Known about the structure:
- By secondary structure, the chain is mainly alpha-helical.
- About 50% of the residues lie in helices and about 5% in strands.
- It has helices at about 35-50, 60-65, 70-85, 105-115, 120, 125-135, 140-155, 170-185, 230-240, 255-270, 275-280, 285-310, 315-345, and strands at about 20-25, 55-60, 95-100, 160, 195.
- Helix 8 (about 170-185) links the parallel strand 4 (about 160) and strand 5 (about 195).
- Helix 9 packs antiparallel against helix 12.
- It is globular, with a radius of gyration of 21 Å.
- The two termini are about 20 Å apart.
- Bound molecules: tryptophan (TRP).
Amino acid sequence: MSETIQNNQTGQTPQAQPKRKRILSGIQPTGTPTLGNYVGAVRNWALLQNDYDCLYMVADLHSLTVREEPAALRRRTRELAALLLAAGIDPVNSVLFVQSHVPAHTQLSWVLACNTQFGELSRMTQFKDKSAKHPDNVNGGLFTYPVLMAADILIYNADLVPVGQDQTQHLEITRDIAQRFNNLYGPTFTLPEGYVPAAGAKIMSLAEPAKKMSKSDPNVNSFVLMTDDRDTIVRKFKRAVTDSEGSVRFDVQNKPGVSNLMTIYSAFTGKAMADIEAEFAGKGYGDFKLAVAETVADALVPIQTEYGRILADKAYVDGVLKDGAARASRLADRLVAKVYRKVGLLQPER
Length: 350
Ligand code: TRP
């Protein structure tokens, strides 16, 4: 197997076409992804497969930073893989795998941790936020979380990393770590670029549109899950917070609720804000909310059907993950061996 991920579908050898850029991204199995995760991440992952060599990962090790019921974590990991497949991740063209199935990530993580400063990690806003949220469990993993994430990315020499805006600081530290390592030990890592989609990168809460939509919000009406059925989706959009003006107009500052619904509508229809305003001119919020809900349901319901079908075939999902781990490991193991050699670890007899 060459360094390039082979395209098994077209059967083309990597040499026959210019080398495609590589993408790596990850999503944690901490609960069912929301509409925000779908629009901001999952949907783009599927689209990017046409133009890039893609590796997509269920980041189960990162989920251990928050205490979880073991059986639930295991179940959610498989469910998330099935959902990604249902959403169009092609396991032949791309590499779909579970982070803990590729031990090289943690192997690289240690070396990177030894090249990351306490001060840099202390400044991470996510660490500060999460330790404030779980003061009873400010563990070492929470602190070194960005180092493992850097390992996830650098171990594949990923060129691009699609992430939400909340992850851009993690990407910056990844670049800092890579740069420092390259300076000390010679060119080793590709400096990855963030790939933050312009439109719809951030879907806000339906209840408090100043906050990001989050599956951990105690108010279930504040988010739409990728697995919510049509009736639930309609009900949640009907309850979405708007304002008293009664006109569909894009103004994030003064009309955050309506603007968020417009962003969602635009993300699914591709329509420009001005066209959406024209479409609903003179109509009430009721009509508008229903249109948004129906559009979202029309997009999600087919994925849900596919998800049910795929999840019922555990052996298939597990087989995909086994193949993905093997393909990812081939790339990752080679990089770890190179790094271990560079930092002066004695190579074991092979
Ligand atoms: N930290 C990311 C999140 O919570 C998930 C993640 C883990 C990730 N490793 C990654 C994303 C590597 C991109 C690249 O969203």
